[in-house]
Amino acid sequence: MTTLVESLVGAVKLLFTFDSELVSITLLSLYVSLLGVFFAGLLAVPFAVLLGTKKFRGKKLVVNLINTFMGLPPVIVGLFLFLLFSRQGALGGTGLLFTPEIMALAQFIIAFPIITGVTLSAYEGVEKDVIDLIVSLGTNPRQRTWLTLFEMRYGILTALMAGLGRAFSEVGAVIIVGGNIRHQTRLLTTAIVLETSRGEFETAIALGLILLSLAFIINYALTVVREGGRE
Predict the structure, then answer these.
(1) Residue 218 predicted with pLDDT over 90
(2) 184-193: average pLDDT
(3) Three-state secondary structure string covering the chain
(4) pLDDT on residue 130
(5) Global pTM?
(6) CATH number where 177 lies
(7) How far, in Å, CA of 128 to CA of 166, rounded?
(8) Are 125 and 134 in contact (CB under 8 A)?
(9) Domain of 34?
């Protein structure tokens, strides 16, 4: 119990003194996660809407694949990218292995099906009467798409927040392709693993508190936007 209390006190001191290493790790985590989720959302949202509006052979298979990949084990993503971008891999010449960019790519792959699946659910949740009303107004396809997106805006926001939350908490894939290199590819989650294994519990707890704070901010922002929309 004494060790826990001492570690908590030490962690709080590190936070309030704005320890340079904690700041560096936090900023890198934000960069990697936001970069990966930004591009995932940029592609996943239109893809989900297109999937919801179009009827084609094999649509159920595609939806089932998306639902399956929503629970894709991150270590598989890490292994795939490592083999692809290693020196012997097809893209080994790019030199992206053990860089923040390939970690963002890993988070992109993980976040894409999550954002797609949640957005698709939001599209399917739009009432048929609303869609019929949009069509009855004599709108063209582009206008119908934008009006439908407006109706499902909170669902899209939920999808993006879910993807971002998943990206922030990722460990397996980023530690494989990033290598957890100090000042280069060390993120909040990978640093927590390392510091815990070293017995540096003060630093590990401080990093954990930062991670929890980021998760709280994401959820709180989502709640505020939803409540503001209802009002």
Answers:
(1) no
(2) 94
(3) CHHHHHHHHHHHHHHHCCCHHHHHHHHHHHHHHHHHHHHHHHHHHHHHHHHHHCCCCCHHHHHHHHHHHCCCCHHHHHHHHHHHHCCCCCCHHHCCCCCHHHHHHHHHHHHHHHHHHHHHHHHHHCCHHHHHHHHHCCCCHHHHHHHHHHHCHHHHHHHHHHHHHHHHCCCHHHHHHHCCCCCCCCCHHHHHHHHHHHCCHHHHHHHHHHHHHHHHHHHHHHHHHHHHHHC
(4) 67
(5) 0.89
(6) 1.10.3720.10
(7) 31
(8) no
(9) 20-187
Q: What is the pLDDT of residue 229?
A: 56
Say if residue 136's pLDDT is above 90: no
When divided into structural domains, the chain yields a total of: 1
Q: Is residue 7 part of a domain?
A: no
30: nearest Cα among 219, 188, 159: 188
Joined together, the tokens standing for residue 147 give 């009006």
Joined tokens for residue 100: 């923040």
